[in-house]
Amino acid sequence: MINSIIRYGLIFIILILLQVLLFNNIQFSGYINPYVYIMFILLLPFEIPAWLLLLLSFAIGGFIDFFSGSPGMHASATVLAAFVRPLILRVISPRDGYEPNSDLSMINYGFRWFFTYTILIVLVHHTALFYLEVFRFAEFFRTLLRVLLSSLFSVAFIVLIEYYRKGR
Amino acid sequence: MRSLLNFLARYNNLIIFLILEGFSIYFVVTRNSYQNTRILFMVRRLTYGIEEKINNTRNYLNLKEINNNLAAENVALKNSLERLVKEENSLFISVSDSVYKQQYVHTAAEVIDNSVNKQKNFFTINKGKLQGIMVNMAVNSGDGVAGVVVGCSDNFSVAMSLLNLDFKLSARIKSNGYFGSLSWDGKNYRQAVLSEIPQHVIVNIGDTIETTGFSAVFPEGILVGTVSDFEKMGGDFYKIRISLTTDFKKLHFVDVIGNMKKTEQLNLQNLVQ
User: Which residues of B fall within a CB distance of 8 Å from A61?
Assistant: First the structure.
């Protein structure tokens, strides 16, 4: 228990630092910005109670908001992502179900499962985030394009980081 | 009572979700109320330290380019000073008080945090109230318009970038003086849109666009950009696409311009209207 608190605490801090110091400064062609910090929501254990999941995602979203000067936007998008996570997990559950006390990682459930899982959560998060940012539905499709392009990069980076974790 | 408790127990996750979403949306909405960047501002104060460190490192890599720009700007200033001194000497023999002539005060500042990839971009500069920066001052990069100050603390200020959907600027075509409203459409960080120019006006690609000075924020005649293409919209107006002269991705040294006669101008306008 204590072990996993320390572990997820570390992941929390590392992901915030990565996002703020590195990924917030990467700007491909003006509007693509990868948001890898939501990996934290992906990695939290399957058994975590829903209320804790919601609070933790509110916390990480809030921290990112602090550092990127956009109060509320990230927090609201991450809370939404956390809210739909149990549903997504149910929909894409592997044939044998989830093993108790196992990480939701690529090692345990394989590349294809992790990839779909990441894409779904990232899409939910980015859609909420980008539409909240423009705050209007005019030019709906351009925002949609931004969502898709940024999601592409976020997913790529998250899978890459997961690979690195796996290698370790 | 029991059924209420049952209800709460059953939907507790939904309720927590709604409460947290409510908080977040509340923050988003209060910030979006245009001038109200107080929260943004409070929050930013916490991260200045880190941002300044990052910025220092980044600057080091650009020193050469920065030096070149400064040298070029110095030469231009020296030339204009030379001209002014000559004119003064030939015209006036007695010493005249020229203080009342000055309308704008300039303060040099550095950008320590900036973004171009959001729809509502802001940047932070390293001068604040103690250095005489006030809300609604104009920010000018060496090349052209950069933004407007929207919040100040003692030593830092946050400015709304031209790359912000809420940013509006009164601008005109230099060659014929027709003015319109300039804003950013959120697409390309090198381009903005000038609207409200009537269709009988002759517009050419490459025409210079500059500020009008009507708003009492920006001085007259500051460069904004050049016309890159234009089309006839429905109605009687052109939609003119401007390529901006300021490259917001390498915005670094800026000039904050305060209008000393602004209150006078605005008071008079309010009085008459």
Answer: 24
Q: Residue B44 is encoded by which pair of tokens? A: 């930013």
Tokens of B133: 């920066």
Claim: this prediction has a pTM higher than 0.80: no
Name residue, tokens 């311009």.
B257
In CATH, A2-167 is 1.10.1760: yes
The complex's ipTM works out to 0.80
Given a contact cutoff of 8 angstroms between Cβ atoms, the answer to whether B30 and B36 are in contact is yes
pLDDT tens digit sequence for A21-34: 888 777 666 567 88
Phi, psi of B199 (to 5 degrees): -75, -10
CB A14 within 8 A of CB A6: no
Which residues of B make CB contacts under 8 Å with A?
12-13, 16-17, 20-21, 23-32, 39-40, 43-44, 46-47, 50, 54, 113, 115-120, 122, 158, 165, 186-189, 249
Q: What are the residue ranges spanned by the domains of chain A?
A: 2-167
* DSSP conformational letter for B233: P
